[in-house]
Every structure is written in C-alpha cells, then in structure tokens.
Amino acid sequence: MAQLSDDCFAFGGELLSMAAALELLEARAAPVVATERVPLAAAHGRILAEPVTATQDVPPHDNSAVDGYAVFFDDLVPGAPTVLPVTGRAAAGHPLPGPARRGAAVRIFTGAPMPAGPDTVLMQEDCSETDGTVRIPPGIARGANRRRAGEDVKAGATVLAAGLRLRAQALGLAAALGVADLAVYRRLRVALFSTGDELRDPGDALPPGAIYDANRCMLRALLEGLGAHVTDLGILADERAGIRAALAAAAREHELIVTSGGMSSGEEDHVKAAVEAQGRLHFWRLAIKPGRPVALGQVGRVPFLGLPGNPGAVLVTFLMLARPLVLRLAGAHPAAPRRFRVNAGFAYDKRANRCEYVRVRLEHGTEGGWVARKFPRDGTGILSSLVESEGLAEIGEGIVRIEPGMSIDFIPFGEVLE
Fold this sequence. Notes:
Molybdenum Cofactor Biosythetic Enzyme, Chain A; Molybdopterin biosynthesis moeA protein, domain 3; Beta-clip; 3 domains; six-stranded mixed beta sheet; 28 strands
C-alpha cells in the first residue's frame, strides 16, 4: 500500500482559505491505493486505473439507421419516382451474403450491415413494395440513413481516461469495444468514528443530556457513495488516551481516517492533541462558515481528516473539502463542482475574508430565471435544513452583504452528492 510522505500537504499557516486548501489538495494529494482487475459487471462506481483504448471501430461496419431499402444512389431517377426489384434481405446479425447488384434494392433493417455496393437507405414509411418491387420517391440525399463504421469511436482512440469514475455510460462504451475487464484502483479503506460523551447510536436508550449520533451515519453514506470501503469504529468517549489508541490502531489498517467532533480547542476536545501526539496537523482551521474547526493532517503517514461536530458543518466541509480529498486518494481526478448563477431571494451579512455556504432552495422568479430562497433556520445543528434545501449558495471572500436580486453562485447538491 502506498502511503503519504511526511510533507504531502505541508499547508502551513493557521487559518487557510478554502480556495488555497483546494489548490494544494489538487497539487499534492495522490492515490494511496493499489490496483486490481475486475470484470466489467463489477466495475460500476470504481475508479479506472489505466486508460482504455479502442481496438476496433464502433460501430465495426457501416449499417442502416432505419428499417427500409438499401440502394445505389446513382440508380435513382432524378426528380421522379424510381421502381426497383427487391433482390435481397439484410437484418441485424444477418448480413446480405455477397455484394448487392446494380439496379436493385435490398430490404434492410435497423442495425443491419450495409451490403457491399449500396450507399443510401430509404425509410420504409416513404416507400411502397408490391409484387417484389419497391417504389421510391425522389428527393433522398446520397448516403442518407447510413451510419459509417467508426462513426462513434475510431480504432486507436483513447475512450476512457485513467482516473475516471466509472458510471453506467462508460461501462456501456467499454462493452461496445468488447472489453471484458478493467484495471481499477482498489477501494480506499477509510476508518470512521465520532467523538463525544453525549452521543448514542440510534436505537439505544437516550439518557438526560444525550443525543443520537447523526454524523457517523451521514458520513458513512457519503464515503460509500464515493466508492470507499468504510470501517465504522463507533463512538469514542472524550478521553485523550482512548482516542490516541484508536487513531494508532486505525492507521495500521486503513488509508484514511475520518472523525467528527472534538476538533475545537475546548477542554473536552481531544482529537487535535491525539493526532499531534503521533503525527501532525497541516491545518485545523479554515476561513469558511460553517465548518471552521476542520483539520487535515496525518497519523504516522496515513491521512487524517477531522470534521466538525455539527451536522450542517459536517456536510458542507465534507462536500467542499473531504470529497475531493477522498477521490484523489482513491485515484480519481475530480472536477470542481459547477456553479450556476442565480438571483438571491434573501438579504445576508457576512464577514470579509471568509467563504460562507448558505443552504437554499430554488424557485422560479416572477420575471424569469431562478431565485435562491434561504432556509429560515440556518444553524449548523439544523438537520432539517439539509433535507429541505437543494444546494448551497456560495458567498466568497470579499463579499460582506447580499441584497435580494443580486447574482450569486449556486452549487446544486447533485453536483457533489453521489
């Protein structure tokens, strides 16, 4: 298993902007997983480790795009109907044996290989066949309804690049090329745990002062959605020695450690100190809201990501920071989520030099276009806002006031949720 060098991130500094963190991630985070070959049927969602090059044209032969009649264009009478004998038949998987002859039509069906000779296909709806002859109207263009060999893919072309997350359409293209198995990266092994004496697992009794742990369930789903193999290490008590031991054990068997909670500087926040005791933190505060207490570091040489304790901050920091990190460690080349310009349907004040993410829904504006409506309760512990919102309004550094009607960036959850 490849692991990170001691200075793989080396971000430095105490308070880092999101843009700077992402830039350094892109430059320095590299795959830490080995490769394997899997059957095509088992490759969905995996990350391609080697490019796929076409060994043949797709389609492999000229074929008909419609049901109809294949003819020589030069046999058609210009400006008048043409009557030709029908002397052969070609269907998908059943090509015409031998070449077609001049002065005749071949009955042909969608996907059938074009017979040698004919260059044009008439749709059956435009023709009429009687007693072994077909009457063809004028006006067809030379080469109509003929799909060329290699029209989709030319032999020798690279059709799937290494680092691609394999979705259904990519598997379909590989299958069309006759590829039976693919080289993919092994699933990233991620250790996951929450910290907090107040936390309980759903289904357990809830004593006074306790709450159910929502973060771990949400994070496991997010990580598995990215193709990771997750080991759920449960809830750790607010006790430094126990957290330190759990981190050390996790580092021996995993390629990434993810935690939530315990990253602030209070007396009961022990994760930061436990990491620093056996590794290092490259940063532990970002200039963003929600989610300032988020840490990136290493336990030994294994990457560590410490997320905040509040669910709203967990989701934002995972989508904007953890997601690209996880994908890069797993071998992918993630693209930045697309931003869409919409109109603000709310007023909002914020600090300068901090990027803020506001949970919003979209509505059709009365004058056209989309309007982003802010969720009325935007505290980082408001879980309902994560369900009822459709994405995040990103309000960058340097902006201190949003007025209704202003143009803002909107990131749909569909861009960052797998």
